[in-house]
Write a structure and sequence with these properties.
Order of helices and strands: EHEHEHEHEEEEHHHHHHHHHHH
CATH topology of the largest domain: Dehydroquinate synthase-like, alpha domain
Helix content: 40-55%
Structural class: alpha/beta
Strand order of the largest sheet: 1-8-5-4-2-3
CATH architecture of the largest domain: Up-down Bundle
Number of helices: 15
Number of strands: 8
Strand content: 5-15%
CATH class of the largest domain: Mainly Alpha
């Protein structure tokens, strides 16, 4: 008897474009959530966007409450949860980069309240996904969280964000190439469930960035539009799959190991991008795919070498050879690489 079922949770409203910030109240009100909004932000995004959103909600009669968090931590999540209970918040609005949005989505999950995502930087696909990344000790945890009911992405705000954040977002999307290949490999060798739809959508987002690499320029709203659409599509692919598999493979394991070995040295998206060059080589050898990835990253202005990342060669080798230990997720790395093999891969691809 057929008993397969799936529950896909997707944003109901996605607003992207010039001056989209002014539509935040409308996008939230159309969700018919009720109650007062709890705005979650951090210092810089507060000045860039949250103050404006807070005024708009106040003018609408919604009497918003705002929490400003300083660090991404489980303690910050608890602080937001407590603030939500005290304010009797009807829903949460995360305004900022990865830190504010991840904390807001985790808190909304704990509170069983709806969540609206208002990114101020196109730095990662967490603006749409049901996953949150949280540091703890010398590593990071990817945890299940509440996906947004609405996304409001103002391309003017995103275009003004630090350029390195945008290039990190681009690199994160390009890494979908290898994430999908690892997912397909796990399906063939380990019978991991695979979604053709989610895989195709994820791969399409990577192709969108590679094909438009020459158009991604600093300060252009057109560029912010392209990158944000790709980030939204990537997040939707994860929601369809019910897993981070469409956008997280061996290249992400490599990045997580670098976070442990050389914490704070480089942005997550940039580390993932460099990892993608090497992992694409492992999947395709001399087929040329890794060169396309490397060249696209270079055209965007994202790092392609250990030196670009500001990370020592030996730390890269250690991360490559130990990345398979990060989590129980089968990838092309299998049960690990030898140091000699890692040095060859990093050398051939120009990472070292």
């Amino acid at each position: 008897m057929f008993d397969k079922s799936s529950w896909i949770r997707l944003p109901r409203n996605v607003v992207i474009g010039h001056d989209a910030l002014s539509d935040t109240v409308k996008a939230a009100s159309e969700l018919r959530l009720g109650g007062r909004p709890l705005l979650v932000t951090s210092p810089t995004p507060k000045d860039v966007a949250a103050d404006r959103v807070e005024r708009a909600f106040a003018e609408s009669g919604a009497t918003p409450e705002t929490v400003v968090i300083e660090a991404a931590s489980f303690e910050s999540v608890e602080r937001v949860v407590e603030a939500g209970r005290e304010a009797d918040a009807g829903y949460l609005v995360g305004i900022g980069g990865g830190k504010a949005i991840d904390i807001a989505k985790m808190a909304s999950d704990s509170l069983d309240r709806g969540f609206v995502s208002v990114p101020t930087a196109a730095s990662h696909d967490g603006i749409v996904s049901a996953r949150a990344s949280m540091p703890e000790g010398d590593t990071r945890h990817s945890v299940a969280a509440e996906p947004p009911l609405a996304v409001v992405a103002d391309t003017g705000v995103l275009a003004d964000a630090p350029w390195r954040l945008t290039t990190a977002g681009c690199a994160d999307i390009i890494s979908n190439y290898t994430a999908v290949k690892d997912w397909q490999l796990a399906h063939r060798l380990k019978n991991v469930e695979y979604s053709e739809y989610a895989g195709a959508l994820s791969r399409m987002t990577a192709e969108m960035l590679v094909d438009n690499a020459d158009s991604i320029k600093k300060g252009l709203e057109d560029s912010a539009w392209i990158v944000t659409k790709a980030l939204v599509s990537s997040g939707v692919a994860m929601s369809i799959a019910g897993s981070s598999r469409p956008a997280s493979g061996a290249e992400h394991l490599f990045s997580h190991q670098l976070d442990r070995i050389a914490p704070g040295e480089a942005l997550h998206g940039h580390q993932v991008g460099v990892g993608t060059i090497m992992i694409e080589y492992l999947h395709g050898g001399d087929a040329g795919g890794w060169r396309d990835v490397r060249d696209a990253l270079a055209r965007i202005g994202a790092p392609t070498t250990a030196e670009d990342l500001g990370i020592a060669d030996e730390d890269v080798i250690e991360a490559v050879t130990t990345a398979h230990r990060v989590r129980d997720r089968y990838t092309v790395l299998g049960d690990g690489m030898s140091e000699a093999a890692a040095r060859e891969v990093a050398g051939v691809t120009g990472v070292l």
